[in-house]
Amino acid sequence: MDEMGPEELRKRLREAAAEELRELVGAHPEELEPIALRQLFRNPHLSRQVIEVLLANRRLLAFHEVRKELARHPQTPEAQALRFVSGLFWRDLLELIGDNRVRPRLRRAAERHLVDRISGLGAGEKVAIARRAGPLLVSQLRHDSEPRVIAALLENPRLTEGSLLPLVSSETAKPEVLSLLARHPRWGLRYPIRVSLARNRRTPAQTALSLLPLLKKQDLKGIEQDRRLSMVVRRRAAVLLGRTPP
Questions:
Q1: pTM (2 d.p.)
Q2: Number of domains making up the chain
Q3: Which residues form the domain of 190?
């Protein structure tokens, strides 16, 4: 095959049909580098045969970007892809988790690896993850002590009422987080959330008092009789029920 410059090689790696692609990779092994390989991985004709050539090249596997692309490509043998997933950065893992084109087993593996690393990440990194987290990560992040992580989690389209309730009823939840939940334009309107907030002694009194008029009588009765709650909250529940405050 004729010699070509880097730009021409990249263009042909991106556009070549299956047979030409095999020839290009076989004829230019030393000229393949991350920028060129980025084009290769975007070629819809990239085959298992070419992937196996890349997997056998130790020089190429030293590049993080190559391992990342191999991990997510559908033609990479699953056992090899799983091996690469464990060495990816947290942002790469998050991308894998959110990419429905990636095989389910790989997405689950990426989520498990990210869960294992979550405690060592900073608040800003957790915020980025919280916005896109799946169920396993949500179960970890919902008890985070940083309010802005919870604020990001509340905007996650995958968050469900069921996964949020353990936080709302938690005996260790931060008061500011519970107030944040009560004010949220979506979750603060959910009746089970309101009830759990009103019955959580960690909820600030002013927040709980603002919720009481929105509750049903049977729930107000439970609050009135709950000696764990502050007297001001119990008395307000009694007044709303038309009773003499305790």
A1: 0.78
A2: 3
A3: 164-246
